[in-house]
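step: validate -> pass
step: tokenize input -> pass
step: predict -> running
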Amino acid sequence: MIISLPPGAFRAYLFDCDGTIADSMPLHYRAWKQALAEWNCSFPEDLFYAWGGRPVADIIASLNESQGLAMPVEAVARRRESLYQELLPRLTAVPGIVPHIEDAHRRIPTAVVSGSTRDSVTASLTVLGLLDKFDVLVCAGEYEKAKPDPDGFLRAAELLGVPAEECLVFEDTDLGIRAATAAGMASVRVPQPGRG
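step: predict -> pass
step: emit ->
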């Protein structure tokens, strides 16, 4: 299955990473569940997917608030990342996305715009053999406001030297699609593979 694109002569492709390029959401969820269980914190799967694209620190802070907990944000984030890294050998690419990455490589500029840390994004793309296919990575902490704010996508367009209206965004979450729209960019919805 190849994902169909909207009409237009786009001069840059901007990709989300988790759930769009990397079929990493089930692995991230396993890492979240294990890390949070150590603090007696629950994270329902439907909420995890609804919050797709939010930075890790924001998620931990929201869970603390909603469940009356005081988990140390940095420690929980490090633990979750460590558990995710252990699961990386199982990572695969989202079906239908790699042909678009390959087609764009060396033809038009490409970027990854992610709510995950640079270390996490780099690790995922390295496992998939795709890291060298992207000109720019824009990751958590490298832009002002998280999705659905357009900051990450606008920063990537600026770094690539391409006007926002000439960029096409590949996204799997509602927050990401809203961010692309707010940036004035066309977008294509990448279907999420089956949740495991």
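step: describe -> Residues 111 and 136 are 5 Å apart (CA to CA).
step: cleanup -> pass
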